[in-house]
């Protein structure tokens, strides 16, 4: 058994991009992603919010037949806790394992807005330190930056469209 880790950080407002996303807009986008992930991830077919107390959401996500999220499978329940305006924690209780994802908002030395995603995927079927573990690590680390960039891009489009 092993846990595969991956992480990626990107500036929310790279030089020359327009419109500039504010902290308030970024957080509103991340909150929207909790309840409507299909607006951000093309592999998601549907999302049913089962419980929502404003800070913690229990949702069931169904993935499209064309692709599945790593480790998760075609359908999964996620428990998501928002700690405004800094982080969103995704846990997968229905899987009965230690997999989790974090979306973290921070700022750099010059005050620039940053978005970081961290991933911890439990793989009971993979031996720690094995060639397969290294291969999975490389695969997850390769996809992590695309996840951050895709989320920022979707939020920027929503800002352009006046939806955030």
TrEMBL record:
Gene3D superfamilies: 3.30.530.20. It comes from the Eukaryota. Pfam families: AtaL (PF08982). InterPro entries: AtaL (IPR015075), START-like_dom_sf (IPR023393). This is DUF1857-domain-containing protein. It comes from Hyaloscypha bicolor E. The lineage of its organism: Eukaryota, Fungi, Dikarya, Ascomycota, Pezizomycotina.
């Amino acid at each position: 058994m092993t846990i595969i880790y991956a992480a990626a950080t990107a500036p929310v407002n790279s030089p020359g991009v327009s419109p500039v996303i504010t902290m308030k807009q970024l957080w509103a986008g991340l909150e929207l992603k909790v309840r409507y992930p299909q607006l951000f991830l093309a592999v998601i077919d549907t999302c049913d919010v089962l419980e929502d107390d404003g800070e913690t959401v229990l949702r069931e996500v169904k993935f499209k037949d064309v692709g599945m999220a790593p480790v998760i499978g075609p359908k999964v329940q996620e428990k998501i806790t928002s700690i405004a305006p800094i982080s969103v924690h995704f846990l997968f209780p229905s899987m009965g394992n230690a997999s989790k994802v974090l979306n973290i908002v921070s700022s750099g030395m010059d005050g620039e807005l940053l978005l970081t995603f961290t991933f911890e995927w439990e793989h009971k079927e993979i031996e720690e330190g094995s060639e397969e573990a290294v291969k999975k690590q490389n695969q997850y680390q390769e996809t992590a930056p695309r996840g951050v960039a895709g989320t920022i891009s979707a939020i920027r489009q929503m800002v352009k469209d006046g939806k955030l």
